[in-house]
Amino acid sequence: MGVGFYLICAAFAIVAYLIGGVNAAIVISKLKYKQDIRTQGSGNPGFTNFKRIYGFNGWALFVMLSDIIKAVVPVSIAMIVFGKLYDMGQFGAAFTGLFAMLGHCFPVWYGFKGGKAFMTGFGTIWFVDWRMALIAMVLFLVLLLIIKYMSVASCISSVACPILLAFFGAESIAVLIISAASALLVVIRHKENFKNLKNGTETKFTLKKKEAN
């Protein structure tokens, strides 16, 4: 690959990281509720903790959709650009999605203290392989319905993605490596949840208006 390829990679990585770092949970908690979601509940600035603290309402849905859309925008553009220029659309989507996830986890805007990137990753996988995404989504929903632990459902469905991608056939080994790295990122970001599960203190997910803390 020429210099142009690496410059485009760098451009998409930077833009995706910066967009991924914009956190709706932090913004809404401060503007609407005059609090910082990072000081409430589990301290995680994501949909689950936001819903737990402020209830399952329109703002919680906005947070969830924002976490997804901030990946969809740069990832979809990257898929088109890399696809047309290098016939590497799948690589462009996976690569850009990983940096959007890193931005969500380690945002420069908020002192590098961010969320767990599952929803941002969810917005990415549809552009990598829709079959992988569909199966992973069904697996996630089934697990969430049965065991009611968002952390477990998120991690298992994330780990399933590179396995499914290998089964369906990836564009290149680089795509598989990026997919595995993205899944690993989600798992690592849930390490506190694993401790809570071991201690029996992990909160189960419900659709109640507001969960008990």
Structure description:
By secondary structure, the protein is mainly α. Helix content is 73%, strand content 0%. It contains ten helices and no strands. The protein has helices spanning 3-20, 24-33, 47-54, 58-86, 89-105, 118-128, 130-147, 150-168, 173-189, 191-199. Helix 3 packs antiparallel against helix 4 (58-86), helix 4 (58-86) runs parallel beside helix 6 (118-128) and helix 6 packs antiparallel against helix 7. It is globular. 44% of the residues are buried.
Question: What layout of secondary structure does this protein have?
Answer:
Blueprint lengths: L2 H18 L3 H10 L13 H8 L3 H29 L2 H17 L12 H11 L1 H18 L2 H19 L4 H17 L1 H9 L14
Helix pairs in contact: 1-4, 1-5, 3-4, 4-5, 4-6, 5-6, 5-9, 6-7, 7-8, 8-9
General shape = globular
Total of DSSP H or I helical runs spanning 4+ residues: 10
Give the end-to-end Cα distance, rounded to a whole number of Å: 52 Å
Mean pLDDT rating: 95
Identify low-pLDDT runs: none
Strand content: under 5%
Sheet with the most strands?
Answer: none
Extended strand count: 0
Radius of gyration: 17 Å
Helical content stands at over 70%
Question: By helix and strand content, what is the structural category?
Answer: mainly alpha
Order of helices and strands: HHHHHHHHHH
